[in-house]
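Retro notes (design track)

What went well: tokenization of the new backbones is finally stable.
What didn't: we kept losing track of which sequence belonged to which structure.
Fix going forward: every design gets posted as structure first, then sequence, in one message. First example under the new rule, 108 residues:
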């Protein structure tokens, strides 16, 4: 994956979404990354942010890739110190934001 493709994918990452395997392939996420990052997730129903929606429907389980994990792989590819960012941030959205900022600022 080249830098341009990686940055394009990173712009889609929010930190809050789970991408379906189909969507990952459609967006040309490397198959090795898909195999490494794919997992099955279960909805929690204590609060709305624990509930998984797919095509505007609540689902109990969903197989896919968390976009925060994809952002981490992109950061590693572009030589960002993702480990440091993850240790310093307390939210998935914060991790994605900091990875973007590190790339924009050249802070590797």
């Amino acid at each position: 994956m080249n830098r341009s493709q990686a940055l394009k994918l990173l712009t889609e990452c929010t930190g809050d979404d789970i991408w379906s395997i189909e969507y990952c392939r459609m967006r040309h996420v490397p198959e090795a990354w898909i195999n490494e990052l794919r997992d099955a997730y279960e909805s929690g129903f204590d609060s709305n942010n624990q509930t998984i929606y797919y095509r505007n429907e609540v689902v109990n389980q969903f197989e896919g890739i968390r976009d925060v994990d994809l952002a981490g792989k992109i950061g590693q590819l572009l030589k960002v110190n993702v480990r440091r960012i993850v240790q310093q941030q307390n939210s998935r959205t914060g991790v994605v934001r900091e990875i973007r900022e590190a790339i924009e600022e050249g802070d590797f």
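Added context from the reviewer: Strands lie at 18-20, 39-42, 52-54, 57-59, 61-66.
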